[in-house]
Design a protein that fits this description.
Chains: A alpha+beta, B mainly alpha, C mainly alpha
Number of helices of chain A: 27
Oligomer: heterotrimer
Radius of gyration of chain C: 21 Å
Number of strands of chain A: 29
Order of helices and strands of chain C: HHH
Strand content of chain C: under 5%
Strand content of chain A: 15-25%
Shape of chain C: elongated
Distance between the termini of chain C: 53 Å
Chain lengths: 803, 721, 69
């Protein structure tokens, strides 16, 4: 610190570390200015270890290192139970751990994080996976503790996010490998089989004179087709089988059928020596369909949709045991434990406050950012965040049984929406398949009369050519493109199925705080006259109430520490607050309560102030709604039935009346929200829930599609089907209606593929389906469909841009 | 076990080998291009061969191709690989000994080539002219390279194999196989061998090799270099790494099949031709994927390109790659190929690739590497810029005239008079093109001048700098144990994989080797069913060997395609069955002179006699050089019996024990020709004797295509079993 | 066309060799991270940090971060 000096003269300079504007008082340290001590410390750290390349690779690579946590936060990592759960791998003295580091963002980050070994001995090597924002660290467990590594990371400005969730997450890693493998193998076999099939297509006559060559090709392609059938295409057979067992018909069933038939037919041909096999077409469609599926399912690696409260709760807390505190894994705390929570930490379980007062906010639960004051003996629910100072509480319930978290014991969290309600595609497909089967058997029967031995040929031929693979391609590529477009507009869907569910929705339910309001931002304005002392008095009075409006007033009139004692406080629910301060009687509440003759209510809540029965003015409190919310709502109302489902009281009911009419429900507990959605659904509605808080988690899960609004993708959002960037809230209607485009496109491309199929069927029915025709039809239809979907979605996207 | 060993290992990159290869690249570049220039001038001033065999186009051209491909580009590849591989693996090359062995071995091979090719020791197959002892040497040195490379990969400190490394691996494996398969030949003497395959089959193998040589020697390694050096130079990650990975695998799975497009309209079965076409066209996708990826890497950094000469070179290189890979599929379309094949269009096409893609990429790398290794700045950016511009100009001056020549040539060949006769004598087309050839050599001069400027620039830079032989570096060792999705024992193979790759490579090679012997069992299938096609007489055989030795195939094709314009000009189109005794095939790929397939009996012996001594005497304006040495040198009848025996092994049906009497037969036939010439009162350059090489040549020329001449088209079943 | 057998045989063997390599590589997670390696290769691991190393433009910070979404 001695080297650093405060230097008022450097104004508005960019911080050498993070590039933020330096305030009046910047810290300078060898000719560089820093916005804060934190940044300077990081710089010092790197300087000592001669890692200043960090600053060469990218300009301002750092993140503002302000409010970096106390290193003791990570002590819990060394706790045996915790440690075992987190460490990915151990061998002798060497261990490996994966840390999720949300803040990494540039080459410098990668460079620094991969040079950790130069920062501390004991770290052997570190490898970054940037798309996953993950760093994998090999270290010698003898030389360095897990907590030290974590501390080091956060000291370097890359605090790892370690949470209860990581301990379960261990081991189950994303496996896109098999998909890639299948595509690779299919592509390889397809290419080579095609090459083997060429003699057939062109100048078969040329080959007749070289019979060995002919069968040589035939057999090789047969060998090559085996992996395609048994490995690459396995997915289709499996899901087809599942579907049949569930007495349903997914598109995979007819595809599997077609593949199987094609293969068998070809095998027969090859053995019979006619050598005209359709194996090339078979491996072709498999190849293309795999690509399509892959393209569609490539979603956002670094967004976790499955997260529950565990991902945010600390993995350990400080527990006071006979005087001295030690950190205990959250899973191990029992009712009766005395836990110590420091400012900024979450309260991991329902507990009774032992300290005499605490200011906690439920931003995490409801999105409501304004702190609520609690006093000794009050109950604080898990998920509340202590805002300043350390407090001590006595645990009442274990985490998993706490008021909020027990929500996750509800079965909605263990169900798979994908398996339920059939997608649009399947509906189309049912008809399609029926049609195909009719035609093929019809044709076969017809041929029975014309030429017996030919009818089987025709039957199989029809099944081959009428494979709905193009239909599948149509939908997957459409979905893929739609997903990407939505992503580009900051609506991130969990998977393609969500598109369909959004498209078919008819009801939209909003959570209030944090969803349609900007969390915590409210403006409080006083109209009237109050002396400074009276102001303080009012503030003191307001401080007595937990009512959000009074909370806001408190916050607005920054409390002075000068003590004012309030006597005989009365709070009349739904009316207001009364109290005597320094001999004066203060009334704080609705107009009527304060004794104002009724008058037209204006937007925003009003809190009137009367001193000794004399009305002195009013506080006008505006809740900041997300910009454009009103228009959004009115737009949505055109096509949807919209409702409000809010966790807190109805203070703003009148205010929201014009938007939601009477479809507003306040003071809803998490379960109530969930149940409400369920009721709507049982009333046959297709519901989209839009929420942000942990208390919406149940509703989001229950809804056909749950959209979490989040202002910072690295910060909290509950498990959901889609994530909407708060900044883009206004484009919600456009985005929703875009999902409907997908259907139109699918239908369009479907008709095309049907045309192709008919064309093919024409040959098949007449028993003239040559491998060449099949081999031409297959890619032709596939490509034109792919092209069509891609182009039309792009086109639609352009139209949307304009509107 | 890393856990106990110090986490961070210090080591040093070996720059010395890189430096050597760099020097070799430059040296051989200059030599190869100079020879190329000479060859080009040979076509403008035939006298330039100075009446010497060594300086005749038929020998300078193979020397040029071999020098630029295997010496210039070859060393360039090794330079780039030895530099980038070490850094991508965070490890020094596996063994300095092997590095040295590799370097000197390769240089020795080149020297051997530079000596043997002018002396006329050639297997007569394009881009594979080197004779069997050198072929073996190449295989050995190549394997040394392989071991060194895989060894480095094994002891690497960076787990991920950067895409460039994949390209290097592909290069090694494939080139090994190609080389072995193509150079299966039956040695006759120390410096003479016959290709194991005959005629159509030889052609097929040769162009399978020929195309893939382009693919895997001139393309894949350079793509690897592109993926390393462009990001390095521009200091920004490649545009899309995912794309680059797809690029690699797509290329690998497709390239191997594209070969046959070099044989369109030949006697190769249609389906094989079409196969080549389709796969060549499919290649467009990955190739352009790569190009776009390379160029987009520089998006938003074009300002850099403007000031940084190295980037300029790289950009032009990648663009040239794009053009060449676009033109390739185009040329493989039958219709286009019908026009372009055998003309200078092809020459233009390959030189766009060679001068632009390979040349410029190499130069760019050199300009970037040398100052780095010598820890100094480039001596003169100005000069480098000048090189860039003059080089680009050179490419234009080379390509445009050649394209022009190609089109004209083709049009003139195919032009008919209203009365259905051909509009142009072949000679007219040749004389007509002379100016283009002259212009082309101007292009060559410019390009070469650029290279010399570079050499000067680099020498100066080297002088100024201090060479860093061993570049210190440090990196954590790759943990021996590794988890992939917590799978057990998987990690063993992580370090084992390179070994496996090597083993796989060797297995592939050996299988390749085993398959080599299949021909011995299949030779039966080469026995013709065109009854009239007979083996060459000993004298004709000798004549043919001379034809091969003099590299006549570099200007004359022996493949009449089924076009009216060609059958009108040369006669009945070629049948696969006619070539069954041709070890090696001599179809050629270029018609600077007319096709010779049916030359037999077209002119008298005297005509040939005079024409070989002074072509212009028979066909004024001809740019064919004169071959005076054929008139003094004698046929070496010592080897003739050996040759006959070799042919017998290859399945040519000479009667048993024919080798005993073959020499007499040869002499008899020779005497007849001599008598024939004497009768025509030819004035003798040298006193005529039946042992003169010229006699053998005449015998061969007069025999060519006569077997089925003046017969109704025979149904083409020669090679069918 | 005996040569065809040879060529196809050899080509197939080579190709399968690469297929094996491909499968191995994918299994070992070589291609799981399709971005970081392209950045990693830019770093020089010399002992002495070089200064003349030109700065990357700020805008491609954004490009990079956006690549994964």
């Amino acid at each position: 610190m001695k080297t650093a000096r405060l230097s008022p003269e450097i104004k508005n300079k960019e911080c050498f570390h993070c590039g933020d504007k330096c305030e009046e008082i910047a810290v300078t340290f060898d000719q560089h200015s820093f916005c804060c001590e934190g940044c300077k410390l990081v710089y010092e750290l790197l300087k000592e270890n001669n890692l200043c390349n960090y600053y060469d690779i990218t300009k301002f690579p750092g993140q503002s290192a302000e409010n970096e946590q106390r290193s003791t936060v990570y002590d819990a990592l060394d706790e045996k139970g915790v440690r075992e759960k987190l460490v990915r791998f151990e061998d002798g003295n060497l261990s490996r751990i994966n840390f999720h580091v949300p803040v990494m963002h540039c080459s410098s980050c990668i460079w620094l994080l991969e040079n950790l070994s130069k920062l501390k001995t004991g770290i052997i090597s570190s490898i970054v996976n940037f798309p996953r924002r993950e760093v994998t660290i090999d270290f010698e467990k003898g030389k360095i503790k897990l907590s030290e590594i974590a501390a080091l990371l956060s000291a370097a400005g890359y605090p790892p996010s370690v949470s209860l969730g990581d301990m379960e997450l261990k081991g189950k890693k994303k496996r896109f490998n098999s998909a890639v493998l299948k595509i690779g193998v299919a592509g390889f076999c397809f290419g080579n089989i095609m090459m083997m099939s060429f003699p057939q297509y062109l100048s078969a006559g040329d080959l007749k004179e070289v019979p060995q060559l002919r069968s040589f090709f035939a057999w090789i392609s047969l060998v090559l087709s085996l992996p395609v059938l048994f490995y690459c295409a396995s997915g289709f057979f499996v899901s087809a089988w599942k579907a049949i067992r569930f007495r349903t018909l997914t598109i995979d069933a007819p595809i599997a059928l077609a593949i199987a038939v094609t293969f068998l037919r070809s095998v027969y041909e090859i053995i019979a020596g006619s050598g005209t096999s359709y194996l090339d077409s078979m491996s072709g469609i498999v190849f293309f369909m795999l690509i399509g599926r892959f393209f569609q399912d490539r979603t956002y690696k670094n967004l976790a949709f499955e997260r529950d409260y565990k991902s945010y709760f600390p993995i350990a807390v400080a527990v006071r045991k006979n005087g001295n505190e030690e950190s205990v894994g959250v899973t191990n705390i029992k009712p009766g434990d005395n836990i110590i929570i420091r400012s900024g930490e979450l309260i991991p379980a329902d507990a009774i406050l032992l300290s005499e007062k605490a200011d906690v906010d439920y931003s995490f639960v409801t999105g409501e950012a304004n702190p609520v004051r609690k006093f000794r003996g009050e109950k604080i629910f898990a998920g509340a965040r202590q805002t300043d100072g350390a407090i001590e509480l006595e645990v009442q319930k274990v985490t998993s049984q706490s008021y909020l978290t027990q929500l996750w014991n509800n079965d909605v969290f263990s169900r798979h929406k994908e398996l339920e309600n059939k997608t649009y595609l399947d509906k189309i497909n049912r008809w399609f398949t029926a049609g195909v089967l009719c035609i093929s058997f019809g044709a076969a029967i017809a041929w029975l009369f014309i030429d017996k031995d030919f009818s089987l040929n025709v039957l199989t031929a029809v099944l081959i050519v009428a494979c709905p693979c193009t239909l599948l391609l149509a939908s997957v590529f459409t979905n893929g493109n739609v997903l990407r477009w939505l992503g580009r507009n900051h609506l991130y869907l969990k998977n393609a199925a969500v598109i369909d569910r959004l498209a078919s929705a008819d009801t939209i339910v909003f959570d209030k705080t944090g969803t349609i309001t900007n969390a915590g931002e409210a403006q409080v304005k006083f109209e009237g006259t109050l002396s400074k002392n009276e102001m303080i008095a009012v503030a003191a009075l307001a401080a007595q109430s937990a009512h959000p409006l009074s909370r806001r007033i408190c916050v607005a009139l920054a409390e002075s520490d000068q003590k004012v004692n309030v006597r005989s406080v009365r709070e009349i629910a739904g009316k207001g607050l009364e109290g005597i301060i320094e001999g004066k009687t203060y009334l704080l509440g609705s107009a009527a309560f304060a004794g104002v003759s009724a008058q037209t209510e204006r937007a925003g809540a009003e809190v009137w102030v009367a001193v000794n029965g004399k009305v002195r003015g009013k506080f006008i409190i505006h809740n900041r709604y997300r910009n454009g919310f009103i228009t959004v709502a009115s737009l949505l109302r055109k096509n949807y039935h919209i409702e409000l489902l809010s966790g807190d009281n109805d203070a703003e009911k009148e205010m929201l009346q014009p938007v939601f009419g009477n479809e507003m429900y306040f003071g809803q507990s998490p379960e109530q929200k969930l149940v409400h959605i369920r009721q709507l659904q049982s009333a046959g509605k297709k519901v989209v829930m839009i929420g942000d808080g942990l208390n919406d988690a149940g509703a989001l899960m229950q809804a056909d599609a749950g959209i979490a609004v989040s202002d910072n993708r690295n910060a909290f959002f509950p498990a959901c089907d889609a994530i909407l960037d708060g900044a883009d809230f206004k484009s919600l209607p456009a985005l929703l209606s875009f999902t409907r485009i997908a259907r139109k496109v699918v239908i369009a491309s479907f008709t095309i593929s049907v045309l192709y199929n008919l064309f093919g069927i024409y040959f098949a029915v007449r028993g003239e389906l040559s491998p060449l025709i099949a081999a031409i039809l297959m890619p032709a239809s596939s490509f034109s469909v792919i092209a069509l979907t891609t182009i039309s979605v792009k086109f639609a996207a352009l139209r949307f841009k304009k509107t | 076990m890393t856990a106990t060993s110090p986490p961070i290992e210090k080591f040093a990159y070996d720059n010395t080998t890189v430096k050597w290869f760099a020097y070799a690249t430059i040296t051989w570049g200059i030599i190869g291009m100079t020879v190329g220039l000479w060859a080009a001038l040979d076509l403008v001033f035939p006298q330039l061969n100075l009446g010497l065999p060594f300086t005749t186009f038929g020998r300078t051209r193979p020397l040029h191709t071999n020098a630029v491909i295997f010496a210039f580009v070859g060393n360039g590849i090794f330079m780039g690989v030895y530099y980038s591989l070490q850094r991508l693996c965070k490890a020094r090359m596996y063994s300095d000994k092997l590095s040295r062995l590799h370097f000197w071995g390769w240089q020795f091979i080149i020297v051997a080539a530079v000596i043997t090719i002018p002396m006329g020791f050639t297997s007569g197959k394009e881009y594979a002219e080197l004779e069997w002892p050198i072929d073996i040497l190449i295989a050995l040195v190549w394997v040394v390279f392989g071991i060194n490379m895989f060894g480095t990969i094994i002891k690497r400190r960076e787990r991920h194999l950067y895409v460039a490394i994949w390209f290097y691996i592909a290069t090694f494996v494939t080139v090994t196989v190609l080389h072995i398969v193509n150079s299966v030949e039956l040695p006759v003497t120390f410096m003479k061998s016959y290709s194991w395959y005959a005629g159509v089959q030889d052609a097929l193998v040769q162009w399978w090799y020929g195309h893939n040589a382009v693919a895997f020697f001139l393309t894949t390694p350079y793509l690897g270099l592109m993926y390393y050096f462009i990001p390095k130079v521009a200091n920004r990650p490649v545009y899309s790494y995912r794309l680059s990975i797809i690029h690699f695998w797509a290329l690998i799975f497709l390239y191997i099949w594209a070969g046959p497009h070099h044989l369109l309209y030949t006697s190769l079965p249609d389906w094989a031709q079409s196969l080549g076409v389709v796969f060549s066209i499919m290649l467009l996708a990955p190739s352009w994927g790569g190009m776009i990826n390379g160029l987009l890497t520089l998006r938003g950094a074009w300002d850099k390109v403007r000031e940084d000469v190295v980037l300029k070179f790289l950009v032009v290189a990648v663009t040239a790659y794009g053009m060449a890979t676009f033109e390739g599929p185009l040329l493989s379309l039958k219709s286009v190929n019908g026009i372009a094949h055998f003309t200078d269009w092809i020459i233009a096409h390959v030189h766009v690739g060679a001068l632009g893609w390979n040349g410029f990429l190499t130069f760019g790398i050199l300009y970037w590497l040398i100052p780095r290794m010598f820890r100094t700045q480039l001596y003169s950016r100005k000069l480098a810029n000048a090189h860039f511009w003059i080089g680009t100009l050179g490419i234009l001056f080379y390509a445009i005239p050649m394209y022009w020549a190609g089109f004209t040539q083709s049009l003139m060949w195919k032009e008919f008079n209203p009365d259905g006769t051909l509009a142009n004598k072949f000679l007219d087309t040749v004389t007509h093109l002379a100016p283009m050839y002259a212009l082309r050599s101007v292009g060559g001069v410019l390009y070469l001048a650029g290279v010399i400027m570079m050499t000067y620039n680099i020498i100066k830079t080297v002088r100024a700098g201090s060479f860093l032989a061993n570049e210190e570096a440090e990196a954590p060792a790759l943990p021996k144990i590794y988890t992939i999705h917590g799978k057990e024992h998987w990690h063993r193979w992580i370090e084992r994989r390179p070994v496996q790759m090597l083993i796989a490579a060797l297995i592939v090679v050996s299988i390749g080797g085993v398959i080599e012997f299949i021909p011995t069992f299949l030779v039966k299938s080469n026995i013709p069913t065109i009854a009239s096609v007979k083996p060459y007489t000993p004298l004709e055989l000798e004549g043919r060997d001379i034809y091969v030795r003099e590299g006549c195939y570099t200007c004359h094709s022996q493949m009449i395609r089924p076009f009216r314009s060609e059958t009108e000009r040369y006669g009945e189109y070629s049948k696969a069955g006619e070539f069954v005794y041709d070890h090696p095939f001599q179809w050629g790929s270029k018609r600077t002179g007319p096709d010779l397939q049916r030359i037999g009996g077209k002119y008298g012996d005297v005509w040939h006699y005079n024409h070989m001594f002074d072509p212009t005497s028979m066909s004024p304006g001809s740019i064919m050089p004169s071959y005076p040495w054929l008139f003094s040198d004698k046929i070496d009848y010592e080897v003739t019996p050996k040759k006959i025996r070799a042919m017998q092994i290859l399945g040519v049906p000479y009667p048993a024990g024919y080798d005993k009497i073959c020499v007499e037969d040869a002499r008899k036939q020779g005497e007849l020709i001599v008598a024939n010439l004497k009768k025509a009162k030819v004035q003798e350059v040298e006193p005529l004797s039946a042992d003169d090489e010229i006699v053998a040549v005449i015998a061969y020329l007069q025999r060519m295509g006569t077997d089925i001449k003046a017969k109704a088209p025979v149904n083409d079943t020669a090679t069918k079993k | 066309m005996s040569a065809i057998f040879i060529l196809i045989g050899v080509s197939l063997v080579v190709a399968s060799g690469f297929l094996v390599a491909f499968i191995r590589a994918v299994k070992s997670g070589q291609f799981e991270d399709e971005y970081t390696p392209s950045v990693r290769m830019l770093f020089d691991d010399e002992l002495t940090p070089r200064k003349e190393n030109t700065l990357l433009q700020k805008e491609n910070k954004k490009e990079k971060t956006s690549t994964n979404v």
